[in-house]
Amino acid sequence: MKTYKIFFVLIFILSAKIFSQSSGSIGMSDARSDAMGKTKVTSSFGLRALGNNPANLFNDSLKHVEFIIPFPLPTLSGSIGTNFISVDEYNYFFGYKTTDANGKTVGRYLNDADKSRLKNLFADGGAITGDVHVQFFAISIKPSNAFGTFAFSMGDVISSNVTFPKGIVDLGLEGNLPNKVYNFNDTKLKAWWLRKYSFSYARSLSQKISFGVSFNIVQGFAYVGLNHVNTELTTGSGNVITGKGDFLAYAAFSPDFNVKYDFDKSTTKQDSKFSPFPTPAGSGFGFDIGVNAKLNDVWSFGFALTDIGKITWNKNAAQYSSNKPIYLDDLSNESQRDSLVKALTGKDSGKYISEFSTQLATALHLGASMQLNNLLLAFDYNQGFNDQPRNSKKPRFSLGADWMLGFFALRTGLSFGGFDKFNWGMGLGFDFGFLEMNFGSPDFQSVVSPNTAKRITFAFDSRWKF
Length: 466
Hints:
Elements: H1 3-15, H2 31-35, E1 65-68, E2 75-82, H3 87-94, E3 98-99, E4 105-106, H4 112-121, E5 126-144, E6 148-164, H5 166-174, E7 180-183, E8 188-204, E9 209-229, E10 232-235, E11 241-253, E12 282-294, E13 299-313, E14 318-328, H6 334-345, E15 351-352, E16 356-359, E17 363-372, E18 375-384, E19 396-405, E20 408-417, E21 421-431, E22 435-441, H7 445-448, E23 455-465
Antiparallel strand pairs: 1-5, 1-23, 2-5, 2-23, 3-4, 5-6, 6-8, 7-10, 8-9, 9-11, 9-12, 10-11, 11-14, 12-13, 13-16, 13-17, 14-15, 17-18, 18-19, 19-20, 20-21, 21-22, 22-23
Helix pairs in contact: 1-5
């Protein structure tokens, strides 16, 4: 049995849709923060503080009302890409084509150095993410400094996080080496579409300290996620492959989407219904808390915990699972192929369940900032507590700067760690007093050097102030 055949069978199986459709967190921040390398704990004030540090919702300026509407700019941000392979690297390994002596189109033949380089790209797994965040509406009102500030906001996020297992790359490049174990436990798949209604309040506890809290009602319209994967293959002599297929996955979709799972044998098929307010597939509650301490006119320090809570999915909820042994010594054997597919994908295991729960993307944020006349320098430490979409248990550090020149602002920042590993942010803003507009990207390196780009990101917004 040829190893490359096994490799492509596994590629197909592991990358195939387990469910008939999939979608996606309360993800990216505002354009100003993105331009500052996603630095925001002590530098995002007013409505920009929502989802970042609710204590900063209170601002002791003369402005008493702020609101966000889709005019003149919608508050929108998006990101799609990877954290492991650039455009150049993709073209080198997968985009190269040539014609051989027989006139056939063929790809690149990898030498040992190429194989080692490709394996190194997948050393931490191959993660692909997509994220779109839109703020439909937000308003904050500050009757007085003594009363504090309260706010309401509504926004959506569609977010996904897929990690391609490095074990399958090792298998494809090394061949069917005897007594070699390949595990696929680093495989990840999580995607959701969430809507958050946030009710927030912040006030000054003293001249130096402000405190804020947000109570969030969360509706989920779609979810697909792997709970765990403990699948491994062992190559033996005589082209024998043994192992086990072990995973657990869940899905749920709004009834309005009329998604039909592969195990649902009912003959009734209805068209999907579009609505700006779909019927939720799940709902939950979360909250954010934050503190901002102003040491003096120069130094400020901040602390926040965001997205503490969970969602219970109870509409069209489904479960897929597998815990089966694997034995394969002849790829042409249909029975063995079917057994492999069932063990790796959970085929024929799908079933409706009453409900399941998922955590929100809970995270800790610490920050400090220094105000030097019209220049703001800020530093953040961010630590996620789970691997939900747009969250990471790997810590992230960032340093950002905002330089105000009258009504014009120039911003930049650097970020290290987390899912993205490295970001160079850049952006600009215009503040006309009653109207503010911002443009930014946390991955400006993709603009100045597109061939080395790993992600495409954008963010823009506008805010009215009175």
